[in-house]
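Researcher: Here's a chain I'd like modeled. Treat it as a single chain, no partners, no ligands.
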Amino acid sequence: MHNIVLLTGISGSGKSVALRLLEDTGYICVDNLPVRFLQEFINSTREQGIERVAVAIDVRTVGELDDLPPVIQAMRAGGTPFRVIFLDANDHTLRQRYSESRRRHPLTDRLAQRLGRVPSLQECIDTEREMLAPLREQEHTIDTSDLTPGQLRAWVRDLVQADRAPVVLTFESFAYKRGVPGDADLVFDVRCLPNPHYDQALRPFTGRDAPVAKWLSQFGSVEAMISDIAGYIERWLPLYMQDTRNYLTVALGCTGGKHRSVYVTEELARRFAEHSPLIRHRNQPPPEIP
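Model: Modeled as a single isolated chain. Structure tokens:
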């Protein structure tokens, strides 16, 4: 099967990390490919029998980004199986990463010519968001704001290995004290549920551990919350599957992102096992990459 991953997103959001992961897992990777060569390149790899291909396209491709969405749609209509991953991060995180790396934003020179002065980093970020908005709205987004490189590598790996269902269903836990993840399509607040954090014996564990799972499962409110969320998803998932989108990310949040949200995420994933959902725990240690 010809597996094609198109990697795009905001500069500074982790595309280099993701591209290296894809290369390490056997993908032939091309960075900064001009849009006009995309169809030709994909056809060439198919003729050569290359099964795994990853292409990175972003604002460094001058003057062609507007052509990318229709090119993707045309190739999909022609039977080319695309997996598009859009990496994003909040402005604070992007500014911090640029400060640490001391790199210039790729739009700096182009904006300077337009404005007649050197633009601020925030102006570059705002312009880039506007340029990439059509892609972000259509494709699978990963908010890397508070992800470690290990987490990002694991999430990209899981995504490209996911079965090609009509909709890639993802359940994701997060901590409200760290902010709502920007890649969420549906957000549910489970902070009203009993909190294992206040039990000294349970505090070191997570919602994936048996002692916490057993403790939470004894409460009718926890079961009712899970059932209500599951019922909502079951009711509306068919309409998402009829839509043009190919992903749905359901985010579950509690205060620290360690106990309640993790447990509810795991339980929902179990109930929707027939859809082969992805499971993400934003505020948990990343798994080891083989």
